[in-house]
Amino acid sequence: MKVSSLIAALLAAASVAGAPPAHAAPAGASGTDKPKAIPVYGVQVVHAYPHDINAFTEGLFFLNGYLYESTGLDGQSSVRKVKLETGQVVQRANLPPEMFGEGIAPWHGNLVGLTWKSHAGFVLDLDSFDTKGQFGYPGEGWGLTHNDVELVMSDGTPDIRFLNPNTLIETHRIHVTAQGKPVDQLNELEWVDGEIYANIWQADRIARIDPKTGEVVGWIDCKGLLPMKDFIPQHTDVLNGIAWDPATKRLWITGKFWPKVFEIKLVKR
Fold first, then answer.
1. Can you give the residue range of the structural domain that contains 121?
2. Residue 124 and residue 99: Cα distance in Å, rounded?
3. Does any domain span residue 260?
4. With CB atoms 3.0 to 4.6 Å apart as the test, which of 43, 183, 187, 218 could cross-link to 199 if both were Cys?
5. Residue 29 falls inside a structural domain
6. What pTM was estimated for this model as a whole?
7. Distance between CA 110 and CA 237 in Å, rounded?
8. Which residues contact 101 (CB under 8 A, 6 or more apart)?
9. How far, in Å, CA of 268 to CA of 220, rounded?
10. How many domains does the chain have?
11. Residues forming a β-bridge with 64
12. Of 202, 210, 189, 179, which is closest to residue 253 (Cα–Cα)?
């Protein structure tokens, strides 16, 4: 989820903890049953919009006609309000240089954000971007979204945390699996029609997660979405960033240092 040179294996231990022995069959199973295949969806581009090629995208959401985006990297992290049609940044707040910005989500007139390793999140006024407060949490902060009653947070492990949006304290969590195997590197999140969509860091796919069970109920294959002609050598980075408008059912995705934000539709394979 961070700069691509980081070693993803640092988080591998979280995937192993608590996993059943490889030879163990689920209760009531014969051991010969094959896991049910997970549906795979391709993407159809509806429209491509401009995106700041210097935005190291960490969080993304759509609200009232604008994209809100958080960017990462030490000394360069920011929160932005962006005009979708042009990519113009119409409002911006820079984070303190020691903070590596991560996921963001709106909540009742506020913008709640995470940082990577500072063990601290922040609350901004959604209109002015003035700082209203901070809060703490154990571990790392990666992605953030919300449903009608909770904030939903990823931390790079297979666990997704649910936070009370008023106290910003964790209430419970789910363990994300695909065909019984833990799925880690869960990155930017978006709540879409009762499911959690999650970027997988350094992968060209998005997981569709059942928020009650933690099971992956679909994969979105985004391979080849950004044409090779639009890649800038030694600059363009990984797929990251999902935004959804529940009113119009529009879905957008982008990536770190990508030149475009794509409005897409899913096509089942």
1. 37-268
2. 15
3. yes
4. 187
5. no
6. 0.87
7. 29
8. 58, 59, 70, 71, 72, 77, 78, 79, 95, 113, 114, 115, 116
9. 9
10. 1
11. none
12. 189
Give the chain's length: 269
The answer to whether 84 and 49 are in contact (CB under 8 A) is yes
Q: Rounded CA gap, 157 and 154, in Å?
A: 7
Distance of CA 213 to the CA centre of its chain: 19
Report residue 199 as tokens.
Answer: 């970027």
Residue 205 belongs to a domain: yes
Q: CATH number of the domain that 183 lies in?
A: 2.130.10.10
- The rounded radius of gyration (Å) of the Cα atoms in the chain is 18
- Report the pLDDT value the prediction gives residue 163, as an integer from 0 to 100: 98
- All residues at 6 or more sequence positions from 213 whose CB lies less than 8 Å from its CB, including other chains: 174
Contact 111, 124 (CB under 8 A): yes
Q: Residue 51: pLDDT above 80?
A: yes
pLDDT, tens digit, 9 for 90 and up, residues 105-140: 999 999 999 999 999 999 999 999 999 999 999 999
State the Cα–Cα distance between residues 159 and 163, nearest whole angstrom.
13
Query: Residue 142, exposed/middle/buried by CB under 10 A (0-12, 13-18, 19+)?
Result: buried
Domain membership of residue 6 (yes or no) is no
Q: Which two tokens stand for residue 145?
A: 């979204």
